[in-house]
Amino acid sequence: MILAPTSVQAVTSFRTAPLLALTLLHPWPFAITRLGKNIENRSWAPPPWLIGRLIAIHGGAVPGGMKLEETIASAQWIATELMRSGRAKPYLTPAQWTWLRAQQRTLTVGDMITPGIVAIARVTGCVTSSDNPWFSGPFGWTLEDVTPIDAVPCRGKQKLWIPEPRTEVQVAAAYLRATQQPAPWRGNEDGARGLG
């Protein structure tokens, strides 16, 4: 199954809608911002109206206990997958590959724990099978136009959620610093609430 925009309205709706955020476990926000992870695995498909929209990528709370062990195992998988052949992977940009090679000896699991809103990305579709190594399913949200930003600290929520107005202002400022472009989503006047 592949979801894609069904109308021009679906593609452009992010310009008039509030920014939505999605909280990820670590180290996946880091992998999206630095390592070319272009699929976010979920147990549910994105709503059709989300296709084509920008979302905020949020790193959840700093893990402890079993969650920290899972983070370490995931970080070890990332290191093995990315550095196995010594050649750039097709999902890495030249800048990401250069950065990774420069950091490979000093990069730690702690570096891969990035709490707060750390990027803006466009949801472009959903796949239920893929040979992309980032895919584990059952639903793979495909991401493009990933823009790393300076981390904006805030608490996350499950599913899709709307950041509080002050957080959205900070995210918009970080996006402006990163892109030299104003944020292409409208302000959030009605506060934070979770969306299914």
Automatic annotation (TrEMBL):
SUPFAM superfamilies: PUA domain-like. InterPro entries: PUA-like_sf. It comes from the Bacteria. This is ASCH domain-containing protein. The lineage of its organism: Bacteria, Thermotogati, Deinococcota, Deinococci, Deinococcales.
